[in-house]
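Anyone up for a design puzzle?
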């Protein structure tokens, strides 16, 4: 699970540096958009129910940062699973693992939780509506905002 991988993710994060992190975020932005688009095309009602459950866990996490991040990751992994493309899913899983240490830093920034919840809700609504374009747009907006929060976190420590 996450706890076993975290020390390796921290090491990778330290080795990657800011430029490589920005490159990973850029690639992830496009890949997550494709994932959301495919999920909207391929989702069953049961798939949508699982996404709703992950979003509910995010809302219910309260101040538990670890629970929030775990539910956030689960939402994205579920979206990739619904897309039913194992290569895409594996790539996103790897990128997310490398960015784990920064995700934890970003979660402390004011407004991150409420913004992230609204952004995930927009993705969920588009997938529920089986609207690939809206899902892609909603995920792109979420990634844009998440990237801005990540940059603010990194810049704040520079």
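Challenge accepted. My sequence:
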């Amino acid at each position: 699970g996450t706890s076993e991988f975290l020390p390796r993710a921290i090491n990778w994060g330290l080795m990657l540096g800011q430029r490589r992190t920005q490159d990973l975020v850029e690639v992830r932005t496009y890949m997550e958009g494709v994932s959301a688009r495919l999920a909207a095309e391929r989702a069953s009602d049961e798939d949508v129910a699982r996404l709703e459950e992950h979003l509910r866990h995010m809302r219910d996490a309260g101040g538990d940062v670890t629970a929030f991040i775990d539910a956030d990751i689960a939402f994205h992994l579920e979206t990739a699973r619904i897309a039913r493309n194992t290569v895409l899913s594996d790539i996103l899983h790897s990128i997310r693992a490398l960015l784990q240490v920064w995700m934890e830093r970003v979660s402390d920034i004011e407004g991150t939780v409420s913004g992230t919840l609204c952004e995930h809700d927009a993705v969920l609504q588009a997938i529920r509506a089986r609207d690939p374009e809206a899902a892609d747009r909603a995920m792109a907006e979420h990634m844009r905002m998440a990237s801005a929060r990540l940059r603010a976190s990194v810049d704040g420590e520079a």
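A detail worth pointing out: The chain has a mean pLDDT of 85.
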